[in-house]
Amino acid sequence: MTPIIDVRNIRKSFGGLTVIDDCSIQVAEGSVTGMIGPNGAGKSTLFNIIAGSLMPDSGEVLLDGKPITHLTANQRFHQGLLRTFQIAHEFSHLTALENLMMVPPSQEGENLFSTWLKPGEVRRQEAEVRRRALEVLDFVGLSHVRNELAGNLSGGQKKLLELGRTMMTDARVVLLDEIAAGVNRTLLGDLMGNIERLNRELGYTFLVIEHDMDMIARLCDPVIVLAQGQVMMEGSITEIQNNPEVIEAYFGAEPA
User: Fold this and answer.
1) Is the same domain home to 218 and 207?
2) CATH code for position 82
3) Mapped to the 3 state alphabet, what secondary structure does 118-168 carry?
């Protein structure tokens, strides 16, 4: 079966320092794949190359068998490849509901001439987008703050809102960048439950960078370990946790 994400022989250097060194990974469609590694392993660089915010020096990235290496992040978005950020990127002066309504591309109301010439179509489409946004808020458990300014939400609620934004378009692959960072344990449980539902019920594929090993253990199979810009190993979380080389890479000492 063709992987939905296929990263082939990626290299990336900054100022003469090689950060990603001939690295290849695959993400199976319908999986929740984890990517872990010590600080400086190259996780964020590889993640940004897949997302389209960095170009590799060599190698290629394929989405569903088709090269996307030279597509912009926006072009990848339109092909169903979305990402979240470690620090939530909400529109702080818009409500939670308005944040979601901003997401769908090519809305008629964005065109000045459409507001003059097709006001009925603009209203119809806006009503449909609003209905969808309310459904998404209900799905992620944020209906009670739909009219709250997004800047006033807690860190965990902002992460839930970011996850909700991926539901406002035709997402196929979602890249989650340390989504647990700054989230309390209660909301983190909600967040993980929503990721599981999106994967199970809607068929979303996820690639997850995360330092929270409890989250990786609950959600991810397989798990890819990066070290020094290369894949050290790939396997189940149990195999990863029992591998002496992985323990050495993380802690710098042989396991007791």
Assistant:
1) yes
2) 3.40.50.300
3) CHHHHHHHHHHHHHHHHHHHHHCCCHHHCCCEHHHCCHHHHHHHHHHHHHH
φ and ψ at residue 71, rounded to 5 degrees = -80, 145
The residue segments making up the domain with residue 147 are: 92-152
Q: Tell me the helices (H) and strands (E) count for the chain, helix number first.
A: 10, 10
- Do 164 and 136 fall within a single domain? no
Angle at 193 between CA 27 and CA 132, to 5 degrees: 90
Residue range 132-141, pLDDT digits in tens: 999 999 999 9
Do 96 and 120 sit in the same domain of this protein? yes
The token pair at 106 is 């090519």
Written as six digits, the tokens of 77 are 């978005």
Residue 195 included in any domain: yes
On whether both 129 and 244 belong to a single domain, the answer is no
Give domain status of residue 256, yes or no: no
Q: Is 188 inside a domain boundary? A: yes
pLDDT mean over 125-152:
93
Amino acid letter for position 250: Y
pLDDT of residue 256: 44
Q: What is the pTM of this model?
A: 0.86
DSSP assignment of 42-70: SHHHHHHHHHTSS--SEEEEEETTEE-TT
Of 4-18, 20-34, 66-80, 92-106, the range with the lowest mean pLDDT is 92-106
The sheet that has 17-27: what strands, in order across it?
17-27, 5-14, 58-63, 66-67
Which one, of 235, 239, 255, lies nearest residue 247 by Cα?
255
